[in-house]
Design a protein that fits this description.
single chain; about 190 residues; alpha/beta; 5-stranded parallel β-sheet; binds thymidine-5'-phosphate
Length: about 190
Amino acid sequence: MFIAVEGIDGSGKTTVIAEVAKALPRVYVTREPSGGPIGRLLKEWALRGGTADPHVDALLFAADRVEHYKREIEPKLREGYIVITERYVESSIAYQGAAGVPIEYILYINSVVPRPHLTIILDVDPAEAVKRIKARGSLEKFEDVEFLRRVREIYLARARAEGYPVIDAGRPAGEVAKDVVAIIERAMASLRR
Ligand code: TMP
C-alpha cells in the first residue's frame, strides 16, 4: 500500500509519520524532496532561493518525484512494504499552485507517477505552524504565514474535491498519529475486500 502524508511546513508530518511507523508492521518511510541528485539540487539550490520562476520549482519537484518513485518507492512496494512518503504530488499542487503555477500544468507534469492509494492531509493553523518552525530554527523559502495560508487553502480545496481525509494536527503528535493509523487500517481493510 502506498500512502502520502501531506500538510504545510510545521504541521508535524515527520513526527507523526515516525509514530505511525512504530504502530504498523512493515512500514517503509521516505520523503520528498528525495535523497537523490535532483532532491539535493532542490534542497541546496532551488529551496535556497536559486530559482525566480515557480515553473522551474514545479519541474524540478516533478523530476525528483519520477526518479524517487522509480528508484525507491516502486521497489519497496514490490517487496510488500507499506510505503509512507512525506509529501508527494499534492505538495506540488499546493505550493507551486500557491506560487502561481496553473494546477493543470502541475497535474500534467506529474501524470507520469501513480497516485497513492491514500493521501492524508495534516491540517494546522499557519500562524501556529510558523511558531513551531521558528522554535526549531530559521525560516526557509516557503515558510511565511501569508504564503502558507494560500498553500493550506489549496490543500483543503483539493481534500474536498478528492475526498482526502483531513486530520486536525494542532493536537499532540501522539493523538494525531492514532487517527492516522486508524485511517490507514481502514483503507487496508477495504483494499483487501
Ligand atoms: P520539507 O520542509 O518538508 O523538507 O520540504 C521542503 C520544502 O519544499 C517545503 O517548504 C515544501 C516544499 N515543496 C514544494 O514546494 N513542492 C513539492 O512538490 C515538495 C515535495 C516540497
